[in-house]
Amino acid sequence: MVKYVKRKAFNFAKNFSFLNSKLEEELNKVKISLNEEISHANQGNLYIQRLPENGKTNEEILDMIQGYMKMEVLPFKTGALSGCVYGASDKITELSGNVFGKYCWSNPLHADVFPDIRKMEAEVVRWVLNLFNGDQNSCGTVSNIFF
Fold this sequence. Notes:
The chain is an all-alpha fold. About 55% of the residues lie in helices and about 0% in strands.
């Protein structure tokens, strides 16, 4: 209800020219600020906007990844950031890489083809439900979105 009232008030305010110009001015300030923040975070690197005409070699791809990794500005691997990255140890990285290598082509949306993924998802969901005192009528799912 509050969201509805806010939206209606905002739309109403846009009808007044003196408010409309002020809104536009403030929105432009926010757009400029966001663009500056993103540009600073990108360290001047431009976005690749098209697929390359020809494929890249493994070495070229890994070089590109190294370039992306140089953009990191905070020392998360030393534990300097609370609540941002968990367990950034080399052992966990190696284990995660090995597990990902075994399952990177699986698709949890096709449980008939990948019953092992379905079982792992059910187990993880139950662990979390138990942490939050979920009963037998509780349920959940794991998202397979990476970004």
